[in-house]
UniProtKB/TrEMBL annotation:
<dbReference type="InterPro" id="IPR032534">
    <property type="entry name" value="EcxA_zinc-bd"/>
</dbReference>
<dbReference type="GO" id="GO:0008237">
    <property type="term" value="F:metallopeptidase activity"/>
</dbReference>
<dbReference type="Pfam" id="PF16313">
    <property type="entry name" value="DUF4953"/>
</dbReference>
<keyword id="KW-0378">Hydrolase</keyword>
<feature type="domain" description="EcxA zinc-binding">
    <location>
        <begin position="2"/>
        <end position="155"/>
    </location>
</feature>
<protein>
    <submittedName>
        <fullName>Zinc-dependent metalloprotease</fullName>
    </submittedName>
</protein>
<keyword id="KW-0645">Protease</keyword>
<keyword id="KW-0482">Metalloprotease</keyword>
Amino acid sequence: AWEFANYAYVMQHADEWIGTEDKDYTFRSLVQASVMNQLYYSFVSVSANLGGIYLNEKYENDPLPTYTAVPRERQRRALRYMLEQLEEMSWLDNHRLNEDVIEVVSLGEYCQDMLSEVIFKSLSTLDLSASKSEDPYTQREAMQELRDYILRDVAAGRESTEANLALQRRLLIDVIRKAGVLEPTRKRAAAFADPEPVFGPTAATRVPSTDPAFAPLPDKARLIRESHLQRTLSGRSPEEIEGMRPLRSIAFRVQPSTDYNYYEMLLNMQQTYRQGLRSGASERMKKHYRYMLLAIERALKVE
């Protein structure tokens, strides 16, 4: 926490420290950019704990394991710490410092948007670490804690700050994008289909019961064959050669399927906002709940 306190102190006093030496405000702009960069790298460093794995250079008779997953509680603390810091970014908006520096948006809002993306992306790294841990911190658990923290005022029927409302909107955008409910997402699913084989039977002559091409993909994973493999195979010469060619490696990109977790989260958010409408919340908050429910219902609507 001291690191962010130092950044806030710099932003608070930078203008008086710089004084009249920065006549064209170039240095003031550099101060802002430097603080934003440091914030980003700080978040990235902390986010490495989510789904993190410690690697050890293991030797013979070495008692240390080759790898160890970051402890569950440490991952939880990292997520909570980032969320707490993310919710209060108003200290970046030093109006005196920014008075003569052209800004399109609030620095606090810009950084909240940028850093929330760091957190959301970190959730996709948890599966590998969880599979290597005796006490795993799963993506589903992390998503639940993320939702409970951001929507805590909704669940309690309390007033939310503008920063928290903005965070709720950013969360909903990310969840809808990853829940597999948008038409572009469904179209992209076709990209995971296997192309026609270079050799062997075509799709019209395949027999599903015996053809390995019809075998199901591994559970919770989608494997994409690299296009260069097809080009390599199609370029082989049928003529005999002396010796042997190098063995060809088949590269795969493995992307765990997580849209079901986001779909569940979307439904849970819908239920939370509906409960908020039935609570004794203010009209300001109920207006926000109606807006969020409208976005969710539009995303869930099947054309």
